[in-house]
Structure formats: C-alpha cells, structure tokens
Amino acid sequence: MYLHETLDAALSPSSMETLRALANAMPQPILFLDAGHRPLGFNHPFRQVFDIPEGALDPDAVCDLVPDGFRQACRAAAQAMDAHGAERYHCEIQLADAPYRLDFRLIQLTQADRPLPIIVVSLLDGTFALDPHARRQAVSAGHASRHDTLTGLFNRHAMQEIIEKTVGSAQRDHEALSVLLFDLDRFKLINDNYGNAIGDTVLVETVNASVGALRKTDWIGRWGGEEFICVLPGTDLQTATHLAEHLRRAVEALDIVAQGHELKTTVSIGIASFPDEADSVDQLLAAADSALFEAKRGGRNRVATSQRQIPQIFSIAGELESALKQGRVIPAYQPIVDLNTGQLVADEALARIRQTDGTLLAAGHFIEAANHLQLTHKIDHIIATHSIRRCMAMQSRSPRGMSHFVNTSADLLRHPELVEDILRVAREACAGCFASSDPNCTKPLVIEITEREFLGNVQDAREILAPLIDFGLRIAIDDFGSGYSSFEYLVDLPVSFLKIEGSLVRRARKDKRTRAILRGIRDIAKELDLITIAEFIEDEATASMLRDIGVDWGQGYHFGRPEAE
Fold first, then answer.
1. In this structure, what is the dihedral angle of CA atoms 460, 149, 300, 448, given to the nearest 10 degrees?
2. Which domain holds residue 38?
C-alpha cells in the first residue's frame, strides 16, 4: 500500500500497523483522507482501479488522477460530515457508466499520544455494499456479464478476477488469505424430484444464509451450478475453518418452504489457504477443489482441508505438467489371463511418465497430484486414444476377442469435448474392423470406473457414461468390494466385468472370511452373467486359490508387469 511520507512519519508504530492491517484486509479500493479530506494514502486495489503510477506522490496529485465524480463525492462527504459531526457517510456514484457506492468512515488513530482522525473511503461495486444483503440485489443489465442473474452474486468470471487481485495483494503484503469452495449436497435430487423452480428457491435461500454467515469484508460468488466460492482476505486456515463451520451450520439450520414443500439442505465445504497450501491462484483453487472432494467423499455436510496433502502434491506438479506438454505420459500394458486356461484374454493400459533418463514413473507416484490439480482428464484422454490406436494396429495379430481395459475418471467424463474426441478415434479405428454403428457389436475397449469417482451418484454416472455406452463400449467396475456401494451400480449400469479390489485378493490366502466374501462376489457375478477379474496376483498359490473359488480372470505380477511399447 502507499502512504504519504507525512502520514508515515506522523503515525506511531502501533497506529501504522493498524492502518496497514486495515488496508491489506480489504480487497476493494481504499483511500485515506485527513480531517480536511486531503488524500494521505491508498491500497493496491485503489492504485489499480485508477491507474495510479508507482512511486511517491504529492497528496494533491491523487486528486488529479481520479474521475470528477469521485472528487465531487469526496467534497460532498466533507461538507456533510463536518456539518453534522458524523462518523459515517455514503453516496452512490457512476464510474464508467456503472453504479458504485462510496462509503466514508471516520476512525481515530494516535499521533504523539493525541488522537489523529483519519477518514477511510471504500469504493464498492453497486451490488456489493457493506450491508451483506445488498450483495444479492437484482443485477442491472449493464452488470449482467459479471453477475449471476438468479442470486445476484458475482459470477465465475468476476470471482476469478477478485481472487487474482486478492492473491496479488496478499503476495505483495505477505498476508494470508483463504478460499472456501462449497456446494449443495445431493442438489440434483431436489431438482429431479421437485423441479427447477423449487431448486432455484433452495439455491437462493442457501445463498442468503451463506452471506449472512460471512463477514462484511468477505467476497462470495457463484462458481457454477450449485457450487459457490468465498474469498476471505487476511484470513488464515484456522480462522477460515471456524468461518466455514459457521456457514455450514447456518445452512443446515435452514427450514426452506417452497410451493408447499418443506425442504432441508446441507453443504460440503473445502478450504485452501495462501500461502500455506499454495503459492498461485491455480494452486489455491486446485487445493480448494481437492478439499471439497474430500469433504463430500467423507460423508458430505462437513468441512475439509487438504493442508497435509498439498506439499506432496505440488512437489511433483512440475514434472507432471512438463510430461504432459512433452508427450512423456504414455500407457504401459499389463496382461490379464484366463485363470482356467492360462490364455491371454485382455490387457489393461496403465499411465506412466517416461522420465528424462528413460525410466518409467508408475501412476502411484503422480495420480494423486493429477487428481488434486485437475489434470486427470488429460492423462485419461492420452491413455485412451493411445490404447484405441494400438487396438486397431493389433487386430491382425492379437487373439480374437481380446479386450483392452482403460481406466476412466469422472474428471474425463465431465469433459464432453474429450469424450467426443475419444469416440471419434474409436469410430475411425472400428470402421475397418466391424460395424461401428452397431451398438450390439462387441467392441474390444472396456471402460473401467470406480464407484468413489462418482461419490455414489449412480444416475450421474449413467448420464455421463451414456455416449460411451451408446457406442457399444463395455463397462467394468474397478476396486469392487472396496467399501463403497458398488452393488447399486450392478443394478443401474450395463456392467460386463467386476474387478475385485486388490486388498481382498492379498488377504484371501490367510483369511477364511475374506475367501467367503470372494465366493459371494463370484456368485453374484455368475447370476448377473458378469466376468470376475482378480487384481494383484503375485504368485501361483494365490492364482490357484482364486481358480478354486471360481474367479474367471486374473491380473498381477505373477502373469506379467506393465510394459510400455
């Protein structure tokens, strides 16, 4: 922030600290005036808005750099506050054809043990006044590009700008800030069961409660759909956690009545803090998204942070991003065999990074970072397209009916442009092999999904898998038996394969109860005409046991390690 040298010299250290803390905590433009309404200083957002050059300035020079409307409002405030001895004054002004509010507040600092009056001037967007409820006022046509029409909050584009500016200020001033990312739990069920109009009412009521739970200096906007983001300037992780819990409880306590229906809702909240968990805007948002995912996976209606995971995640982020740009993310193929005949029946494409020295880095070293940095869709797209082209090249020499498994994340499936590109490659590959337009034609590519990727929302899974299912690709449930509600998937999705979770396979040799569970999975699969596949088979004894239980196929180091071509 900038403070004129006369003010800098006059203030005591404690007063100076108070003034700097006040300015740094405010993301909106702030101007400081003396008792005669003469400019004494301003914060960085004020400099940015009015394009004030860097360096020392004469106080009067600031007046020459702000618009006439701003100067006139300052003069009117001076007259009104002096005439009535008021400590507060506000007015509406137009800047660049957009409405703004100027708020004037008198504060008392200390100069040589004597009171020093300072007037703090805050420039506020017309829809973000000090009254929290004013943030949700109807948005004028001129502001439609920056505001959400339903809630009146800032939209994603505007919030992105606010986050970038706030992070920039925090970097310069060595201040903390935190971000809350939250969304409504199971909101899709409300829309599906009651309709969009009632869903909109729930959204607005949730926003009302959320805004009321925040401080006047906090920012809130609609990030997309039922997801919202809050920016908390000058706030460390501990304080942000208390605020997030206060917001969560406020929403949980809501009794929403819409068109005669009494409804309840909850929110899951992810928290990320700067600079402890991230040193850039992208990393901060990725950390918040990661924390939100953990909050939902942990049971919803809770607050979560990703503080412990972030250092490890970002330690490999550079290598991962470099590998994606340089084409060093490649598939390695692991064989899958028929346990009864020992014949090769399938393979699975597993992501690897080819390091600069030629060695391969297994997915276990980077996939968590990819998840948290929202790069999984890029990896999946690369592996899937590689596998399809390899499948086409192998048709003449691979065993007839051989299947090719590819892991598919929800992150990829929520990028329809990438799904369409995979289907385009598949259509081209299939054109020379069989009738690609025939959905009943068995295609060799198998899409592996895990229940936890969709957080138990089977309907959501069906909808985003629809293009792949319609094309005729088969579905495998990976990590079956890992503790999630995978059985619901067997009822509602056209599943062809069950891949048994590896920890069950490892325990089965020594644990009678685990073997009983495997026999139960086998029986269910046979009733549903599904093929079972056991993973992590590392020796013949385990393979023999699984064969005796009746598991169909096997995969693991006993049959072959993943190999890149």
1. 30
2. 1-126
